[in-house]
Structure formats: C-alpha cells, structure tokens
C-alpha cells in the first residue's frame, strides 16, 4: 500500500479556477497571471472573475456590487451569537462560530454564487464588529456606499481611509483570494463532497485556515521579528532555531519550490508604501539571512519566502492589529473557498481516502 503522508504530490481533482505553478513561481486565476491583475482591478471584479470565470461587464459588476452591499449586515442571530462569546476567544474562533450561525434553512440548496456573495460580504462585518467590541469602541455599521475593502477598513477604524491605504489592502486581498488545493480549500471541498451546505463547508475551511502551518503564520512572523529585533547576532540566532528543529515562520511551501510570486508582489508593494523604515529594514535583513541559513542547513529542500512573511509586514504597515491578520486573509480566501465548493458540487464524488491499519 503506497502511503502519501499529508497527501504530498497527490492530485485529487481537476479544477478550472486557478493554477499554482510551483516550479515557475506563477499563480493563475481563470487564465490570468495574478501579478497582472492584482493591483489594477477591484476585489469585486476579481471575485466575479473567480466565481463566473470571466471579468464582469459594467452591468454585471453593478449587480455583483449591489449584492455585496446588500448582504453586509449581520442577521439578528449572528449578532446575538457574536455578542455572547467570551472575550478570550481568538478572532478566528469567533469568525468560525459566528459564520456557522448563518447556516439557517436558506443555505440548504445546492451552493450558488448568491450564497457565496452573501457569506463573503458579511465576513468583514463579523471581524470588525468583534474587534471594536473588544476595544470598547462603538460598533460601526456597514456602509451602503463604500466598496468591499473600503467598507472593511471603515468598519474597523470608524472613518473612511485614504485611497492609497485601501489600494494596498485590496491588492493584498486580491493576491490571496485563491490558491489551488491548499489545506483549507481541501477541507471545504471534503465537507462539500458529502453534499453538506456552503456554511458548513466554509466553517471547515476557517477551522483549517486557523492553524500556524497555514493561515496562522503571519502573527508568528511578527513574533519572530519582534524576538529578532532584540538580538545582536541575527544569523546565529536563526541558525540555532533551524538546527533545533524549529520552523522559521513565513518560509517554505508545499507547492512553491521557487519564489512565491505573491511574496514578491507584496514585498514590492510594501517597499513603495513604507519607504525607509526600521521595522521594514529588519524584515528585509531577516529574509536575506533566513534564506542563507535555510540553504545551508536544509540543502536541496528549496525553501523560499512564502506569502505570509511579507503579509505580516504589510498588515503591520497599514496598522492592522495582529489579531486581524488571519481573519483578513480568510476574508479574501472566502472567494476561492466558495468557488471550489461550487465546483465540487458540479461534478461531485465524495472525498473518502483510505488508511492502512497498523494497530493491534
Ligand atoms: N523553517 C525551517 N525548516 C523548514 C521550513 C521552515 N519554515 N519549512 C520546511 N522546512 C524543512 C523541514 O524541516 C523539512 O526538513 P527535513 O527534510 O530535514 O525533515 C523540509 O524542509 C521539508 O519540510 P516539510 O515540513 O516536509 O514540508 P511541507 O511541504 O510538509 O510543509 C510548510 C510546508 C507547512 C509550509 C512548511 O514549510 C512550514 O511549516 N513553514 C512554516 C510555516 C509557514 O510559513 N506557513 C505558511 C505557509 S503559506 C500558507 O499556508 C498560506
């Protein structure tokens, strides 16, 4: 029996949504290289592309935009659940729990784009509502006028943010909407493959995204950089970590065996946004040294910077609280998750692998 631990190298399905080319370092959404579209289209336009397979016409975009605005508000049940959760619950656990309260009878049908928009539209409201509640600030209801990303920052900060800042977050979110058969997308497809509903599938995905080996890495990157900011010999320190078997957060990837194209795009965005900055200098220096150490200590493993390393820095640069990093990543990945759930439902076979018994 041939066992592929972690399903390494196993192809589980065909997809028309996106392609992660780990050898060339390319990420494709529906035929478009993400580097060509991430900074020149809006979140709504790229979400439309991923869901429908084509960029929208003006009329179609109006309709998608209208739906996003329509579904931003929490339902009374979601609000009740959100306000009853304990203070020490992490933002990702709150997101998972409150979103699952959206799973009423309106979601029992075959997954649809309307359901995808409904859930994608409400995620920023859950994140911002909880954040302001914990901060002891007045909760800001969603705007009916602002774009998806503008509205997210508006609900978080209580005021309309500068266009430049919105563009930076929007570019980051556009770069991270979809990424092939990553762990959380696979989890969503497994749930969808049992003919369960879209809310349940997304709840599985959020629970999977939360782990530090997947979407939970950015906060760990901040911790690593904070720790390194107090250290004199960075290289020695990084080497000791790797030699003791620790993973350097923000490095390595299951599929990319070359530079992660998203990390390059985010790094360039960051440099143009921040310019000269002590913290950015540290991040750039740590990247260089970490790559050197990984090459020397783990030769032949092809370990490069992944999206999470500079994602942490970009979110810090736009003053997003670290507790919001993984929820924000999830807010953009909602588009990919929902597209995959619909694709799974189109040509469904229940996902049910085998295990080899080695017990008594
Ligand atoms: N630091 C140090 N060593 C590493 C790292 C790292 N970040 N990543 C991989 N390695 C080493 C492993 O120790 C292993 O060494 P070995 O051959 O001596 O045993 C070898 O490289 C292969 O690593 P695996 O863990 O087998 O690779 P896998 O494909 O299973 O894991 C993963 C990929 C989980 C991303 C891993 O690289 C990692 O844990 N990175 C740190 C966490 C992180 O940044 N996660 C975000 C990923 S991007 C995303 O999910 C959005």
Automatic annotation (TrEMBL):
Domain of life of the native organism: Bacteria
UniProt keyword list: Acyltransferase, Transferase
Record Pfam families:
Citrate_synt
Q: Which PROSITE patterns match?
A: CITRATE_SYNTHASE
**CDD domains xrefs:** BsCS-I_like
| Pathway, per record | Carbohydrate metabolism; tricarboxylic acid cycle
Task: Report the InterPro entries cross-referenced here.
Answer: Citrate_synth-like_lrg_a-sub, Citrate_synth-like_sm_a-sub, Citrate_synthase, Citrate_synthase_AS, Citrate_synthase_bac-typ, Citrate_synthase_sf
Q: Does the keyword Coiled coil apply?
A: no
Record's catalysed reaction(s): oxaloacetate + acetyl-CoA + H2O = citrate + CoA + H(+)
Give the Gene Ontology MF terms in alphabetical order.
citrate synthase activity
Q: Which family does it belong to?
A: Belongs to the citrate synthase family.
The record ties this protein, via PANTHER family, to: CITRATE SYNTHASE, CITRATE SYNTHASE, PEROXISOMAL
Return the protein name: Citrate synthase
Please tell me the species this chain comes from. Answer: Sutcliffiella rhizosphaerae
Gene name in the database record: citA
